[in-house]
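Give me structure tokens for this 185-residue protein.
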Amino acid sequence: MMKSSSKIWLAISGILLVALGVMCICKPAATLFATAWMIGVFTLISGFSKLIFTFRTQAFLPNSGSRMLSALLQIIVGCIFLANNLFLAVSLPVIFVLWVLVESVVITIESFDYKKVGFSGWWCILLLGIAGIVLGIYGLRNPDVSAVTLSTFIGIAICLIGLGYLVALSGVNRFEKQVKQVLNL
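Here you go.
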């Protein structure tokens, strides 16, 4: 069974990503330097949350390597954001699009793990991952899109990733409930 603290870390990660996405949508014209710092902090915390979740669940969730890679990439991106505000202000849209694309691919792959353990909502995680991939590809193919439009698309994609984490948490809870029922029989 997953420790409740692991579930809390996954929930924190999902909530922070949704908050980050909403911030990108609501404040696209905000000062990029202030936004870069906040995004760096959120990304760093989300990466550490996901890393802790990965360590605590690797025994019963397959493909922990992809989750660990994703967590490490989030931590690295968070550190880059915090250390290089000027660099980030110039390259923020491209960096985010690449991160959204990688994270969405990971979520899409992980959806099949949830299907294997019998989570009926696995298809929701799959669709959220695919939607993030589509938005990521759109962002890469259209670098001339204004920062406001790209920020909105990126914000939506980040919200989708965060919602994917929260749906995955629901899957873990349902899986544990099924295991408890089997063990009590």
